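Thread: calcium ion complex, take 2
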Amino acid sequence: MKNKNSGLKTAVILTIIILGLLSTLVVINSMRSETTNETSVGKLPPTEGQPLLGENDAPVTVVEFGDFKCPACKAWGETVFPELVDDYVDNGKVKFSYINVLYHGEESELGSLAAESVLKNSPDVYWDFHKGLFKEQPSLNHDALWITQEKILEVASNFPSIDVEKLQMDIEQQSAIEEVNNDAELVKEFNIQKTPTIMVNGIMLEDPFDYKKIKSLIEKELEGGNK
Ligand code: CA
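Output below.
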């Protein structure tokens, strides 16, 4: 009897230990998937000919694939982006670039054509125009038509260095269609599935609003990590 009892005890204790180990494994695994939030693409999108904010020789590059019609892009630009600029762009650690995504058809294309034209002809005010156009995105009914030639020219007229007549001609003649198509090719090449998509060097974030993760990726890259 005594022996039988102690055998049972041992079995119970062993079961408890095994269950404990199993649940620890489950917790570790779920922690891992919670903290990953990244996909390594292995390469950086080419930023030649793209708008660039920050120092040319900044060691880390952050790229946004965005769409002027996309509400999450507007939100990202108003919340995460200013932090990124304050913490890393202004001190020369990060340069930031933006690639157009045309998820919303004609309006996305119109906004992109205008932005590319401003980049070509008045690069000094590109980022202000970019911000100005996003600012016009309605906060409630963003699906309603709002990127029109009229709206674009109205935003552009706030910047003395933009030749509004030239911009109008550029839009009508689709002067920057090559640049817009080039961006669309990059969207395909990098298999962009949503906007905004944020990349830190060759690493794509699953959640672009996870600024803690963006920071940790930048810090790792600054230390020469991920190599
Ligand atoms: Ca572009």
